[in-house]
Amino acid sequence: MRLVRNVEGRHVSGRIVEVEAYIGEEDSACHASRGKTPRNHLMFGPPGYAYIYFTYGMHWMLNVVTEGEGKPAAVLLRALEPEEGIDLMRAHRSGSSDRDLAAGPARLCQALRIDGSINGTDLVSGNDLFLEWVESSGGLMPIGRTRRIGIHYAARKDREALWRFVITGSPYVSRARPGTPRRRRKNGRGGNG
DNA sequence: CAGACGATTGCCT
DNA sequence: GGCAATCGTCTGT
Predict the structure, then answer these.
(1) Which strand C bases fall within 7 angstroms of a protein CB?
(2) Which among A5, A18, A45, A130 could disulfide-bond with A79, CB atoms 3.0 to 4.6 Å apart, if both were Cys?
(3) A62 - beta bridge partners?
């Protein structure tokens, strides 16, 4: 699908080329795994809405709420292939190469000017930020799957779940490496299998 | 109320 | 590969 952002009447958009799934309270990598809180409450609501949160003191992340009301789940949008409004993306991310404009979940939000002010947006019938089908002319895109990135804190079964999905061969996918711990534990037990 | 830490990035060696 | 940036959120007391 395509993600479209309306910035003062102009469309900034791209094809989604990388996502991760976070599913239910049993998924220890999912924000909902420790119950409903003020931050994550949107995940417990109906599907089709944006769950946007702030992390690392500087970055925004965009999720699409999925599953039915009462079952908390969401898809983290991690990378786009830029389409419309590339000049605006460049302006939002000065210094970035075109390839890296939206290659990463925080970069994607920067490029499309997405932040907490549009948390809870209706992504199906909204106007500020929405999803639309990509008319596929060349058949289905090849989908690859890997472990999710940056979830060293999760239980092994959840670290190992193949819930990151990418368009195989796309140069616009983030170059983070699944299974590489970003932060080592004090006792040095690194690695991920 | 203090303390720990994060679904990351950019710059450094 | 290492590490600082930077602050909201959650936990335990």
Answers:
(1) 1-3, 5-11
(2) A18
(3) A52
